Amino acid sequence: MNPLRERYGQEIDEILAKYPPEQKRSAVMPLLYVAQREHGYVTREHLGQIGELLAISATEVSSIVGFYTLYHDKPGGKYRLQICNDLPCALRGADAFLDGVCDHLGVKPGETTEDGVVSVEAVMCLAACDKAPMFQVQSAEGISYHENQTVASTIALVDEWRKEEGK
Amino acid sequence: MNEILLRHREFPEIGQLAGYRQQAGFEAIKQAVTGMQPDELIELVKASGLRGRGGAGFSTGMKWSFIDKNAWPHYVVVNADESEPGTFKDREIMERNPFQFLEGVMLCAYAVGAHAAYIYLRGEFWELAAHLDACIAEMEKDGLLGDGLFGSDFNLRIYTHLGAGAYICGEETALLESLEGKLGQPRLRPPFPPSFGLYGKPTIVNNVETLTNVPMIVHKGVDWFRGFGTEKSPGNKIFSLSGHVVKPGNYELPLGTTFRELIYTHGGGILDGHAIKAIMPAGASSSLIVADDKALDTPMDYESVPSVGAMLGSASIIVVDETVSMDWLINKTMHFFQHESCGKCTPCREGTYWMRHLTERIHHNQATWDDVIMLQDVASNVKGKCLCALGDFSTEAVISSITRFRSDFEAKVGAPLSAPAQADLKEQVSN
Question: pTM of the entire structure?
Fold first, then answer.
């Protein structure tokens, strides 16, 4: 049996039910989110398993992972701290905020802290331009928004995660 | 009552199903399904003058009337991708006034004969998707979605679908490709979605804000709706105000309100007492306009904004103060557009790469005037030559800033313009 179906059978059935039976390829993006929940990134095994469920090739599934920014094909921190530094946020200090958070954590954008708890990523517009500086957190639990932030409030959040992880 | 879309500000409980029903919620869809033929509803929306709020400003009723009745099934797809830098209005509607939005989806579906509607949300709206799923489940439980609605033979199901971080999916055909489980890349048009849309079937794609207007138009009537805005741009618009203003946020105002009123009366003026320098009226896709008195007194509607060399678009007003040099700003926008180009067509894929490269050089003091001229040349060779609007959008800030804020570039490259170069810098903004 397909390992993903074995583990998430009911959830996968609910996803597939959203689309016409002959159009099940539409489920590729929701299924990638299900798979990514397991390790924080999509593995090679996942590609084949999703392809098998949808009758498309692993390569086609892989192309979706590569095209969209919220899927990851490599391990990262348990929490991906994705800071918007696009134009409207940058006009309200997002570049300095990004630098401040990175300096404090000792990483550059795109890197993960040594303890593996957090990766900092600079991302494009998150549709929260009026509440900059802001970031979203992507983790196994999904994505959550954190608006009107300061470096101190952000570091406090990271410290909470570290405490939860016993780090 | 002045609000059509952000009614949660007047009725905080409107975000709950019971609260929405207390405000005559779902009366409009009931009225339509039990008393109007679908074509009558389309005519009513046409008569209201409602224009698409996603950016194009095309007549909503007209778009609905284009649905191909020779092929079935029909679909409604809601564009809730909202990825334009400077735009954050749809998120507030869906979070705070979800049932009016969902009733708008129902009205559209009834008008065009669709029995399934998909709401395509940008992937980052994870929490919002869960919220909408809960609202949809409540409606199903209450018999507001499903089969035989209001004692008729109208069936409808609404589904949410999350994208995964791609600005291009705000382009309607790229959105459809993405919803079909493919790369979000635009399709060659025609055929347009009302004849060849989702799964190759007739499909109406509408923005969240557009559809949220419809229940109030049906419930209160065309004359009431036309009491807001201007004759050619009726209704209210949510103006998303960001950048160097004291009070950024969403402001629902009648179309035709001036930039000055939005920025100074509602937005509280410019941060830290600085002077205003430029306005981008349609987000990062927008031409930059010089914020002089003429611009500030221009009414924000679909007809007037082009008179100052830009488009209203989705009305995402980014305010830029005097401390900003345009070489920095266009470098920022080119980071965005190069990153978001889907790569399908060559002028956009290659053009955004080279524009990013050139803006980088200019910004980091490594450029000469030849680079500025080359940048303008690349931009003019991308504009109008791409499969979808993203290519055009990537050039707007570049061309307009070089022509309208030339001194910023003169200061940056450290040399005055030669006469031939000046001649080359003619106004190229076609708006």
Answer: 0.95
Closest to B358 in 3D by CA, of B300, B409, B321: B409
Burial class (CB in 10 A: 0-12, 13-18, 19+), B153: exposed
The overall longest dimension of chain A from CA atoms, in Å, is 52
Q: Do the bridges between strand B157-162 and strand B114-121 make them parallel or antiparallel, or are there none, so unpaired?
A: parallel
**Beta-carbon separation of A127 and B88 below 8 A:** yes
Nearest to A135 by CA among A127, A146, A124: A146
For residue B213, give every residue at least 6 positions away whose Cβ sits within 8 Å of its Cβ, in sequence order, or none: B4, B5, B50, B53, B104, B225, B235
- In the chain, the amino acid numbered A101 is V
| B163 neighbourhood in chain A, CB within 8 Å | 29, 68
Answer for the pair B139, B117: CB distance below 8 angstroms, yes or no: no
Sign of the four-CA dihedral B374, B375, B377, B382: positive
Q: What is the pLDDT of residues B178-231, one digit of tens each?
A: 999 999 999 999 999 999 999 999 999 999 999 999 999 999 999 999 999 999
Q: Do residues A61 and A97 make contact, with C-beta atoms less than 8 angstroms apart?
A: no
In this structure, what token pair is assigned to residue A120?
């900092």
Q: How many CB atoms lie within 10 A of CB B95?
A: 16
What ipTM does this complex have?
0.97
- Do B181 and A25 count as a contact with CB atoms less than 8 A apart? yes
- Give the residue on B whose Cα is nearest the Cα of A51: B181
Residues in chain B: 431
Tokens of A5: 């179906």
- Report B:368-407 residues touching A (Cβ under 8 A): none
> Across the interface, which of A18, A71, A145 has its CB nearest the CB of B159?
A18
